[in-house]
Design goal:
The protein is an alpha+beta fold. The chain folds into two domains: about 5-90, Beta Barrel (Ribosomal Protein L25, Chain P), CATH 2.40.240.10; about 100-180, RNA Polymerase Alpha Subunit, Chain A, domain 2 (Beta Complex). The protein has six helices and 13 strands.
Length: about 240
């Protein structure tokens, strides 16, 4: 599937662009000058949902073809989670590139179907190296060979599309396995452990707090100035007693 994104060069700050319903961004890479751009917010959100960060996109800049790019990064508003900025990276089609690619688990594990349990996936994205034209949006991982709880799928077991090489994680790293369902005894033990942790938390919070400096503890110890002031009075009392 081919994706296309229309953008325009911009000379104003991102805040003004956002008020106009546009999304500010930057295009860089491939040994070319970085350019500030704006794209339609709704158009980008739709493309991003479909293409993600590992799909080549045809960029149209000011009405002219600007080559292939990928979505390198997006920034979100910390409160609304709305996208507020996008980085687009130019791709040199003649040089190998690295990009994150999603793993999609397909099929059904026979052991889970027959005996129950849970699919435990420890890796969901891998970093691949390839020529741009060989880049894929995802890699399928069939779990149909998980016939027992001892069988696992590692990075080295993945069937990769032509031209794709995984550079991270390592070949022996676990990708997915089937785990048996918890027994009643295990569930009870977990609940008891959770209850014990909660009780310990209550005990900790019930401990008396140490007296802070400048509060009650300070009143029990006279200040240095007070000692000096009390000394003359003590001398006067002794003189009176002698008289």
């Amino acid at each position: 599937m081919n994706f296309q994104l229309t953008a325009a060069k911009r000379a104003v700050k991102g805040e003004k662009i956002r008020r106009e319903g546009q999304l500010p961004g930057i295009v860089y890479g491939a040994q070319s000058t970085a350019e500030s751009v704006s794209v339609g917010y709704a158009d980008f959100v739709k493309l991003y949902k479909q293409a993600g960060e590992s799909t080549l996109v045809d960029l149209m800049l000011d009405g002219a073809a600007h080559g292939k790019v990928i979505v390198q990064a997006v920034q979100h508003d910390p409160v609304s989670d709305r996208i507020i900025h996008v980085d687009l990276k130019r791709i040199d089609m003649n040089k190998k590139m690295q990009a994150p690619v999603e793993l999609r688990f397909t099929g059904e594990a026979p052991v889970i179907k027959a005996q129950g349990g849970t699919l435990v996936a420890t890796i969901h994205t891998v970093e691949v190296e390839c020529l741009p034209q060989d880049l894929v949006s995802h890699i399928d991982v069939s779990i149909a060979d998980l016939n027992n709880y001892e069988e696992v799928i590692k990075i080295k077991d993945l069937i990769l599309p032509a031209g794709i090489k995984i550079v991270s994680p390592q070949a022996e790293d676990l990708v997915v396995k089937a785990a048996p369902a918890l027994t009643e005894e295990q569930i009870k033990a977990m609940e008891e452990a959770g209850a014990a942790a909660a009780d310990l938390s209550k005990i900790e919070s019930a401990k008396p707090k140490p007296v802070e400096e400048g509060a009650e503890g300070e009143a029990a110890t006279p200040a240095a100035g007070a000692d000096k002031a009390a000394a003359p009075k003590a001398e006067e009392k002794k003189k009176d007693e002698k008289k």
